[in-house]
Request: fold
Amino acid sequence: MLLKLLRPNIWLPLITLCSGAVTVGMGLTDNAGGLIAARLVLGMTECGLFPGVAYVITLWYRKEEAQFRQALFFCAASMAGAFAGALAVGLAKMDGVGGLAGWRWILIVEGLLTVVVAIAAFWVVLDNPSRTTFLDEEEKEFLLHRLSADEFGAEELLLTPEEQEHIHATTLTTAQVFRQVFTDYHLPLHILVFWGISCPLYSISLCLPTIIVEMGYPKIQANFLTIPIYISACLLSLFVAFFSDRLGVRAPFLAGSYATMILGFLIAAVAPKAAYAGVFIAACGVYPAFPGMITWCSNNLASSRKRGVAMAVVIGMGSFGGGMGANFYRQRDAPRYVLGHCLNLGFVTMGAAAGAVLYLRYVLENRRRGEERSRREAAVEREVERVRKDGREAEERVRHQFLVGKEEELARKGDRSVWFRYML
Reply:
C-alpha cells in the first residue's frame, strides 16, 4: 500500500537505504540488547522489498511473462546470498582492524554497500508504467492496454476508450479490498504452499555450511561448497520459469519441483553419507518452486489493488517459514541431522498436498465458471434473436450492453467474477 502511495522508484530505494543504514548500526552496537533491537528494525525496513518487487513485476508484464522475471529477481537475491558467504570469509579476516571484531566488519561493509546501491537506485528503479519517463505516450498506451486486456479480456477492443476509462475508474474502497483479501479461501492454501517452500529454503540457506562442516569439511571449504548448489539451483530455476511462461501453466512445474524436494530430503534423511547430494537435489527443487509459487498466486489475483494487498499477506505469512526452517537443524542433532531433514520433508509434503487441493479447486471453479459463461452467452444470443426484427442497431445495442456489463463485473469483482479464468 505504501508502494502505491509513494511510487516504486521512491519506496523501494528508500527501504533499501534504511535497511543498509540499520545493518551498519548493527555492526556498531555495543550490547546484545542493542543488536536484537537493531535486528528487529532491520526486519521492519526490509520486509517491503520482496513483496514490493514481486508486485511491481506484475505492473509491467503479462501473466505469461511474469515467472521468468520473478525467477531473475529471486536468483539474483540467492546468488548474492551465496557469494555473501565468500565475502564474509574475507571480511572476517579484518578481525581486530580498528579495534572491531570481524563480524562487525561484515555488517558494516555489507551495510555500506547496500546504502551505495540504494542511493543509485533512486535514479535506476522505474516508476509505474503510466508515469515512467522513458516511454512516450503511445508506448505507454500500448503497454497499459496489453496488461488490461491480459487481466480483463480482449473484449475491451470493442469498447470505446471513454467507456473503458469510465468502467475501470470505479475503484474499490480500502475496506472492500481487505474484505476480498481476507475472505478469499484460496490464500490460506497459497500460504501452506509457501511454507512447503520457505521452510526448506531458509533451512538450506542458513544451515547448509554447518551441515557440510559436520560432514568433515573445514569451515572455509564448506562455505565454498555451497556455491555449486546455488548456481545449479538458480540456473534450473530460470530454465523452469522460461518454459512455464512459454507453455502458460504453473502447477505442473510446481509439482515437479515438489517431487524433487521430496526425493532430495528423503535421500538426506535415510542415507547420511549422501546428505550433501540429497540437499543438492532438494535445492534444485526449492529454487524453481519459489518464483513459480509467487507467480501462480499473483496470476490468480485481480484487481491490481487486491493483488498488492494479497501478495503482501501471502509473502508476509509465508515468510514465517524462515522462523521455523532456521531452527530445524540443531547442533545436538549433528552430524546426521535426521530431525531437520524429516521436518523439511514433512513441510514439503504438506505444501504439496495444499498445492494439489488448490489445483483441484481452480479446475473445478474454472469448469463451473465456464458453464455459467456459456449460459449467459446463450441468453444474450437469444436476446439478439428476439430483437433481430428491429434491425442491426438493436442487435449491436444488446451485444454492447452485454460487454459493458461483463467489464463492470470484472472491474468490481476481480478474480471472483465468472469471467475471470484461473491459471493452472
Q: What stands out?
A: The chain has one domain: 2-130+177-361.
